[in-house]
Design brief:
It is built from eleven helices and ten strands. The chain is of the alpha/beta class and 281 residues long. The chain folds into two domains: 153 residues, Rossmann fold (3-Layer(aba) Sandwich), CATH 3.40.50.1860; 115 residues, 3-Layer(aba) Sandwich (Rossmann fold).
Length: 281
């Protein structure tokens, strides 16, 4: 039996297809250190980016139901693919629960970073095909030129813990050279959006390929700011947030030990095996 807790004392719920969303969790933990966080990585069904919209939506609803059962006060869809595809379905399923995705914060950050209005977005196949980032950027900055490029191999590379080196750079060059290297400098985007939570782990290799000029944007920090303002506006911040250190509990759908190992690389600090719980959806 669960002990009753006021809504403000419930944890922040968040999920991703794997460990990539830990980049958002890290930013959130830095912005709101007094809040408890419940994170679910659906590693058994990774990657989402090659799945159909119907399958991605079904997975997202199943995960959200698991988190809601545990008791959460806000849901963060820390997965660009699920944000692009399933946000409306999640909002409809739990209308009283604030639901925040990473697409709109990422689009806002891109529009702010670009000077010439020429933006490249790299993401999973599903995110690019759905066009959510392209639409969000153009809605915020009409007339903006947006190039979308699917980079599906980046997800398994990151999940393997390969973050730099010649193999990673070779894959990055195969994807990005047509946009940044094989065209005149005047035709190159001045902003590159890492529109998948796995991609920031490869930022060093990506930077080595595209060079020093384009601004590289990921949505983690601005998503954390959006969550903080949403909690404040709704009166949902933990009442003792300034006097406590929040807890982080991890759920995964496959191999808790591997989640702890790879997740530690993503976070840059250790995750204990005992902090990771294996769950079935």
């Amino acid at each position: 039996m669960h002990t009753f807790r006021p809504q403000s004392q419930l944890p922040i719920g968040m999920f991703d297809s794997g460990v990539g969303g830990l980049t958002v969790l890290d930013a959130l933990n830095r912005a709101l250190p007094g809040e408890d966080i419940l994170y679910l990585g659906d590693t058994a069904r990774l990657p989402y980016g090659t799945k159909s919209p119907e399958t991605i939506t079904r997975y997202a609803l199943q995960i959200a139901e698991k988190l809601v059962e545990r008791g959460i006060k806000i849901l963060i869809v820390a997965c660009n693919t699920a944000s692009a595809v399933a946000l409306d379905a999640l909002t409809a399923a739990w209308p009283a629960l604030p639901v925040i995705g990473v697409v709109l914060p990422g689009a806002k950050a891109a529009c702010a970073a670009s000077q010439n209005g020429h933006i490249a977005v790299i993401a999973t196949q599903s995110t690019i095909k759905g066009g959510a980032y392209q639409r969000a950027i153009r809605a915020l900055r009409p007339g903006c030129r947006v190039i979308g490029k699917a980079c599906p191999l980046f997800v398994p590379i990151a999940e393997e813990g390969w973050m730099d080196g010649p193999i990673v750079e070779a894959v990055a060059a195969r994807y990005l050279s047509p946009i940044f290297l094989d065209v005149p400098k005047s035709e190159r985007p001045d902003c590159l959006v890492l529109a998948c939570t796995h991609f920031p782990l490869l930022k060093s290799a990506i930077r080595n390929v595209v060079g020093p000029d384009p601004a590289i944007v990921d949505a983690a920090a601005i998503t954390a700011e959006t969550v903080a303002s949403t909690l404040a506006q709704g009166g949902l911040g933990h009442p003792e947030a300034t006097q406590r250190r929040g807890s982080i509990h991890y759920l995964t759908t496959d191999d808790a030990a591997r989640f702890a190992h790879i997740g530690s690389l993503f976070l840059g600090r250790p995750i204990a095996d005992t902090d990771v719980e294996l769950v079935d959806l």
